Amino acid sequence: MSTVRARLSPQESRSAALEAARALLIEAGPQAVTLKAVAARIGRTHANLLHHFGSASELQAELGRYLSERITAAIGDAVVRARQGEADPREIVDRTFDAFGREGAGALAAWMILSGNRDALNPVLEAIHDLVDHLGAGHEDRPVHETTLWLVLAALGDSLLGESMAAALGLPPGRARDLARDHLLASMGLAAEPHRA
């Protein structure tokens, strides 16, 4: 019995592949994001994905771009709403840590670096740079670039080693996120809440 495949436009096919790649990244890590696995997930052939992406490293680069666009939009929204008093500034930290942890951006970045595919990080870095420039416009009195630097590095480190390092130091899981929230609130002149032991 043969299955009938729905005819997708090239853009729809790329979008489906990127969403499948994101799901594989979250479920099984960056090593699982292969052309063959993504093709199987969306009912396409390896050759079809090769046509759209060229190689596994190009698929990973596109996945990085796809994730960074989603992530920077969500973080940018949280920053704007926090500035307007419509959201708790802690949401900025939570969205950043979630992006690198639960959404898999940290594992993907590490995988790209360790596999020698550093150029694939350029779209991610450009998206962050564009967001920071946008958020910094009109707020030159605030250390937007410096805040972004420490927050991204903290979230990246936490996604890769945070839980293990906290356990090794006898600290509760999520302590790095708590510290990042405190640091952000302090940089905004707001009081941090006491932490549970």
UniProtKB/TrEMBL annotation:
Pfam families: TetR_N
Portion annotated as DNA-binding: 34-53
Keywords for the protein's UniProt record, in alphabetical order: DNA-binding, Transcription, Transcription regulation
Signal peptide range in chain numbering: none
GO molecular function, one term: DNA-binding transcription factor activity
Residues covered by the HTH tetR-type domain: 11-71
Entry-linked Gene3D superfamilies: Tetracycline Repressor, domain 2
Family annotation (InterPro entries): Homeodomain-like_sf, HTH-type_TetR-like_transc_reg, HTH_TetR
Protein name: TetR family transcriptional regulator
Organism (species): Sphingomonas parva
